[in-house]
Amino acid sequence: MNFIIDRSCFYEALSELSRSISAKTELHIMSGIKITAHANGLTLIVCNHLFFIERTISIEADRKLTVYETGSVVVPAKYLVELVKKLPEKLIVELTDRQKLSIRSDEISVVLSCFDVETYPKLPVINLNRSVQIPGRLLHEMVSQTAFAASSIDTRPVLTGLLVTFQDAKIKCAATNSHRLALIESEIETDIEGSYIMPLASVKEFMRLFKESTAMIAVYVSENYFVFKVQNLAMYSRLIEGNYPDLDSLIPAHPKTMITVQTSKLLKGIDRASLFNRESRNNNVKLELMHGSSLKISSYSPELGNIEEIQQVIELHGEKQISLSLNSTFLIEALRAFTEEEAVLNFFGPMRPILIKPNSNKRHIHLISPVRG
């Protein structure tokens, strides 16, 4: 392997990938970056037990790379990234033997000991015929507006992931921890049918890597992996095995009361009401309908006191008596996920979940179970 590369171009790619490497990896070789030089450029890969990240540097696209000899090597990521950061421009990189990498720049010469490339995990084989193209902004928005509702406790592994369903030319993202549910649905052009559970750690990595992607993202699906791919970046995520709860059976129908509120105003009111309880286990707020035209938001802390405010509702349908205590964190995260100016709160009874959705035709719902007291 032998190539010459612009330092800043190399460092940008290495730095981005190195952040995906776990500091607690059990296999020493997974602390490395696999570099493969080929006729079209460089392919850089990092991995852990949940995902692979693949970044390519193209000869033609970047014009900052020349490959003289092909080959592969796995280099300790921590030292390679720091070294490239501190070197001058124009690097000459050469594999001097199977596990020694030479990097030269001006009068500086460094030799790094490398891992055995043959022991590095192989990329999974994916069926390229099972794919769908999704706008980057849409996919990132759907994931960010639902994934936070997944469980952080692994007693039920399926609840620690994001459910992605392709059905009837639609994509649906959903997450639940059994106390709340976030679900959003959009229409897309696809012939794929099926449901897949993506680990939350992979979801967070996807959101970081593809945050700025405005182009179409190609999504390849299989029984064991999801692959997200744009021009020079790909992510292979393992999937969680198991049966996800039947979401349709969790979503109630026929609310007793529906009130329309200003989303940002209610969010600020909930945020204020939770001030005294943020550091306690009992971080609840109480919603109470007053005189059929206003909503009282309140909370109480034995140590600090109580907070109470009244907000006028925009519209009300149904019964005019409501009193419900809810987890303030769940409420705040749900309201922050909405981009619409108005939200509709659906109440089904004193100890039944509350369903919150935007005041639009968009299918985007948040279901939150009440708490006692």
Structure report:
Strand 25 (354-358) and strand 26 (364-368) form a beta hairpin. The protein contains 8 helices and 26 strands. The radius of gyration is 26 Å and the shape is elongated. Helix 1 (7-18) runs antiparallel to helix 3 and helix 7 (263-273) runs antiparallel to helix 8 (328-336). The chain has helices spanning 7-18, 59-62, 77-86, 136-144, 200-209, 247-250, 263-273, 328-336, and strands spanning 2-5, 32-38, 41-47, 51-58, 65-69, 71-76, 91-97, 100-105, 108-113, 131-135, 161-167, 170-176, 180-187, 194-199, 216-221, 225-229, 233-238, 257-262, 284-290, 294-301, 305-312, 315-318, 323-327, 342-347, 354-358, 364-368. The protein folds into 3 domains: 2-119, DNA Polymerase III, Chain A, domain 2 (Roll), CATH 3.10.150; 131-248, DNA Polymerase III, subunit A, domain 2 (DNA Polymerase III, Chain A, domain 2, Roll); 251-368, Proliferating Cell Nuclear Antigen, CATH 3.70.10.10. With 373 residues, the chain is an alpha+beta fold.
